[in-house]
Design goal:
The complex is a heterodimer of chains A (256) and B (424).
Chain A (H helix, E strand, L loop, with lengths): L4 H16 L10 H8 L6 E6 L8 H9 L12 E8 L4 E4 L12 E2 L2 E2 L5 E9 L8 H5 L5 E3 L5 E3 L9 H5 L6 E2 L6 E2 L5 H4 L6 H5 L5 E5 L6 H8 L2 E2 L11 E4 L7
Parallel strand pairs in A: 1-13
Antiparallel strand pairs in A: 1-11, 2-3, 2-6, 4-5, 7-8, 9-10, 12-13
Chain B lengths: L15 E5 L11 H24 L7 H17 L2 H6 L7 H5 L9 H31 L6 H13 L8 H34 L12 H33 L9 H40 L4 H11 L1 H21 L5 H23 L11 E5 L8 H5 L2 H21 L13
Antiparallel strand pairs in B: 1-2
Classes of the chains: A alpha+beta (256), B mainly alpha (424).
């Protein structure tokens, strides 16, 4: 067989064209098309953390770990409570032993005793995923395993995540980690499985002081929405442009 | 219900120690394999650019090293994504990156850029060696013996059925080679620039986030690629000289001739190496100065990481041993082969340290800016994880391109100076 270069190249082009044919079966959707297909939801889940009410008991962390089957004794957690101690000399001490799971029962921070006389102010700050309106974790996932539901909650598909850790790196809040059992990215879901059944999140139900509240931000009569609209609230690290949807009442400038 | 899970380990907890306040979920998640990934990708890009200097810009002195660099870049390119495979928590799902890419992610571009670049490298190699394949296929047609028959079939397959060796065809080959080599330069830069983009675009990371990151990565890629090709070339030439000197048979060329060719290549390549080193260094210093001068919120903790915690790794190992010292060695007059070998080894070490300081250094501090994390590289593995993401896994990745090249060289001789095969 005498095959000229011309024939060879033509064969290559034909081959490429033929192999491209099955590709036409796929349709690439624009984000707006997807949005239209999914229909806009009349729910946008949001969260309020009233730091004035938090006493650092850690019930929320306990409840979360049990509800969402995050191994109890590992360091990582979907939600955690931070303790801030600001000294009279301006120093700030922060800790969250076991993610605050067992509460804050000693006056020492990482083994060093703190003299109460020198404390200017101290408070607790519960943290969880901010379910950002513009979530960087969803943006960077190379396979689309993490996504935003129409109600604004960011979820992870455990059967699809490849475990590259890019989403963990991209979260400014440290909300993500690898699940020790499933070996995929793990995060707070606002207890999506409970919300869709009309229940509250496990942490909200566990909080004895009402420091945590979850609600529909699209409903102006929702108590959470009312507070967001009428009170002085703040969000964490807004300079990242992530548009967090967890609002804090009484947020101090020392909070990281 | 979770009592049985007590001994469960969190990924990253094995090699991370924490200091002061960090978020509970923060660990050093990206480890040695993520250092190896941009390092090897960088070597690919650099090796290809070096080979293109001959094919596109006609730098005749680089002729021999160019062919070697081209085939070596293929070996490196095949290994390039493997560190990621070792790093993934679900490695069996790796194909999803290629087949269900999510295009807003920098990593998703990998499939396309990688395949495109692979096509260019393989294509260029084919055109460079086309004449050789045909000659071999014809010569081995009637060959006796199992080995030669198999080899003959391999070469026959490699000709892709084209036996046209007319002057016109060979001329077209050269034109296509030049085109592919030229096209390969921007694609090689893109491949590595995008590796830099993966880091530079992480807005949550104060150390990584800079628009300069892709450019810094490209320049250091070229530095490392040229250095690796020079070093490997020197080792191979020395081996040739050693063989010629210690063989009883009369070699076709003398050890002196090899040495003469060797020093020419080394001196010429050294000039490009120094040029690329200056560019890389300037970019890195601009970044550092800019951070210090603008002193954004993150600067307090970055300053501590750069000037205190990682001072030895950055200023002694990366800039001192990996940049300044080889710079002096290469610029001193009358460059010798031994001096070049030492200098390029140091350069390779320096670029590795640069990757280390970016990847590990970027995770040395908490996103709360109130604490630090220290990475302890696992040396002796006690499970799969500490092997994969430990020193042994990294060495395995580092050795693999050389093993591949050894086999490639059997089929497509990229280094054979005793009996040179001229395809150009």
């Amino acid at each position: 067989m005498k095959l000229t270069r011309r024939d060879l190249l033509i064969t290559f082009v034909k081959g490429a064209a033929l192999s491209a044919l099955p590709m036409s079966a796929y349709k690439i959707l624009s984000p707006s098309e997807v949005h239209a297909a999914l229909k806009e939801s009349n729910i946008r889940w949001g969260f309020i953390v009233d730091t004035d009410k938090c006493v650092g008991c850690g019930f929320c962390v306990k409840a979360c770990k049990l509800e969402n089957e995050v191994p109890y004794d590992v360091e990582v957690s979907r939600t955690w409570v931070e303790r801030y101690i600001i000294m009279k000399d301006g120093r700030t001490m922060i800790d969250t032993p076991h993610a605050g799971r067992d509460g804050f029962t000693t006056q020492s921070v990482r083994g060093a005793d703190v003299n109460p006389k020198n404390i200017a102010k101290a408070f607790f700050v519960p943290k969880l995923c901010n379910q950002c309106e513009n979530p960087p974790c969803v943006q960077v996932c190379p396979v689309g395993a993490t996504y935003q539901t129409p109600e604004g909650v960011v979820l992870v598909d455990r059967s699809w995540c490849i475990g590259c850790g890019y989403c963990i790196m991209s979260c400014p809040y440290g909300a993500r980690f690898f699940h020790p059992v499933h070996k995929v990215a793990e995060k707070c879901t606002f207890c999506y499985h409970r919300l869709v059944k009309g229940m509250k999140t496990a942490c909200v139900d566990a909080c004895p002081f009402g420091a945590r509240q979850v609600g529909n931000l699209k409903d102006q009569n929702d108590p959470v929405t009312k507070q967001v609209l009428t009170q002085r609230v703040a969000v964490l690290k807004d300079s990242f442009g992530t548009k967090p949807q967890v609002y804090y009442i009484g947020l101090d400038e020392n909070v990281r | 219900m979770t009592a049985g899970l007590h001994e469960l380990a969190v990924h990253g907890a094995e090699w991370t120690t924490k200091e002061l306040f960090t978020y509970p979920n923060e660990f050093v998640y990206w480890t040695i394999q993520i250092v190896m990934y941009p390092y090897i990708t960088g070597l690919v890009a650099g090796a290809f650019v070096l080979s293109s200097l001959y094919h596109v810009f006609g730098q005749e002195e680089l002729k021999d090293i160019a062919k070697f660099a081209l085939v070596f870049s293929l070996a490196l390119l095949i290994v390039a994504p493997m560190p990621l495979l070792f790093h993934l928590q679900q490695p069996m799902r790796n194909w999803e990156v290629m087949f269900t890419p999510h295009f807003t992610s920098a990593i998703a571009a990998f499939g396309m850029v990688y395949s495109f670049y692979m096509a260019i490298v393989v294509g260029e190699i084919w055109f460079v060696y086309r004449k050789f394949f045909i000659e071999k296929a014809i010569a081995l047609k009637e060959a006796k013996g199992m080995y030669n028959r198999i080899l003959g079939m391999v070469y026959k397959a490699l000709t892709l059925g084209s036996y046209d060796l007319s002057e016109k065809a060979v001329h077209t080959d050269h034109k296509i080679i030049k085109f592919l080599a030229a096209l390969g330069i921007p694609v090689a830069c893109f491949l590595h620039g995008y590796a830099g983009f993966i880091f530079g675009s992480v807005k949550a990371n104060a150390l990584w986030m800079t628009p300069l990151m892709p450019v810094i990565f490209i320049m250091s890629a070229i530095v490392s690629g040229i250095a690796l090709c020079m070093l490997t070339d020197i080792i191979i030439m020395e081996w040739q000289k050693f063989r010629i000197k210690h063989t009883r048979k009369k070699a076709k060329i003398s050890a002196e001739e090899v040495a003469g060719a060797e020093i020419d290549v080394v001196r010429k390549s050294a000039k490009y190496l120094v040029g690329a080193m200056i560019a890389a260094l300037v970019l890195e210093l601009v970044d550092l100065i800019f951070r210090g001068y603008t002193a954004m919120k993150s600067w307090d903790i970055l300053r501590h990481v750069i000037y205190d915690m990682d001072f030895t790794k950055i200023f002694i190992m990366q800039y001192g041993i990996g940049n300044l010292l080889p710079f002096i060695l290469l610029l001193m007059p009358k460059l010798t082969v031994k001096r070049a070998a030492l200098a390029t080894t140091l350069v390779l070490f320096g670029v590795f340290m640069m990757r280390w300081n970016v990847v590990i250094g970027g995770q040395a501090f908490s996103n709360s800016f109130a604490g630090y994390m220290h990475y302890h590289l696992p040396i002796i593995p006690h499970n799969a994880e500490t092997f994969k993401e430990g020193v042994l896994g990294a060495l395995f990745m580092g050795a693999l391109p050389f093993v591949l090249f050894y086999f490639f060289n059997k089929i497509i001789p990229a280094i054979k100076y005793i009996k040179p095969v001229d395809n150009q």
